[in-house]
Specification:
single chain; 130 residues; alpha/beta; five-stranded parallel sheet; two-stranded antiparallel ribbon; 5 helices; 20% strand
């Protein structure tokens, strides 16, 4: 993808996770995978962080101030964000059925998972959104 200057623009992942150490480790993995990463720890930070243009939202199921699953459902109802890929990466198996109902199987990544699983799933979701 090219930006307005003709330069290739790296795809941007908005990473939302309330655990700073886990978020930082995941951000490193994503950067090594070639993505630009914007990190947030709370739902209230997502709208401001997304203003610079993001290509996908990757989030833990529960943030410090609410449910990312509910937020993803809200994004689906808004025509401006209905096509934004959302991936919920969580170890909370109790919330998995709700995620699948809202986002489909492709919107859920049960963790822990092999290191390549996150990058593979992001790549699949971004390819579908083009």
């Amino acid at each position: 993808m090219r930006d307005g200057t003709g330069e290739t623009r790296r795809r941007c992942v908005l990473l939302a996770d309330p655990d700073p150490r886990r978020r930082h480790a995941t951000a490193i993995q994503l950067r090594l995978g070639g993505y630009r990463v914007v990190e947030v720890g709370a739902m209230r930070e997502i709208p401001q962080a997304a203003r610079d243009g993001i290509d996908i939202l990757v989030s833990e199921a529960e943030l410090e101030d609410g449910s990312a699953v509910a937020y993803a459902a809200y994004l689906r109802r808004d025509p401006r964000t209905a096509r934004l890929p959302v991936l919920i990466a969580t170890g909370d198996r109790d919330v998995a059925p709700t995620i699948v109902d809202s986002l489909g199987e492709e919107g859920l990544l049960v963790v822990p998972a092999p290191p390549s699983a996150l990058l593979d799933r992001i790549g699949e979701l971004l390819a579908r959104s083009r």
